[in-house]
Amino acid sequence: MPKYVIRLNTKEFMKATLEHEITSDTELAAKIGVSVTQVWRAKLPSDDPRHNTPGTSFIAGVLKAFDGPFERFFFLDEVLRGRNEK
Questions:
Q1: Which of 32, 36, 46, 49 has the fewest CB atoms within 10 Å distance of its CB?
Q2: For 25-77, what is each residue's pLDDT tens digit?
Q3: How far is CA 57 from CA 37, 47, 63, 83, in A?
Q4: Of 46, 42, 36, which is closest to residue 59 (Cα–Cα)?
Q5: What are the C-alpha distances in Å from 69 to residues 3, 7, 34, 61, 86?
Q6: Cα 32 from Cα 15, distance rounded (Å)
Q7: pTM for the whole thing?
Q8: Pseudo-torsion of CA 38, 23, 33, 31, nearest 10°?
């Protein structure tokens, strides 16, 4: 049975930061209530070993800060064998 993870739709996420005139990851992290490192890691490509999938605090912060539907900012992605499978 395939396993899935929630991924960040980086394009829509970055578009929302521009719409809200957020100019830095520090400002963005404060607005969504997570660390700058969490923002940076979530924006990395999923094949980068430093990438982290967004956690519940990150997801909730994004939805509250940008008043958007889940589907705009996040999507389900099947976990491929290898790095992401535990």
A1: 49
A2: 999 999 999 999 999 999 999 889 999 999 999 999 999 999 989 999 999 99
A3: 14, 22, 10, 23
A4: 42
A5: 23, 14, 19, 12, 29
A6: 15
A7: 0.85
A8: -160
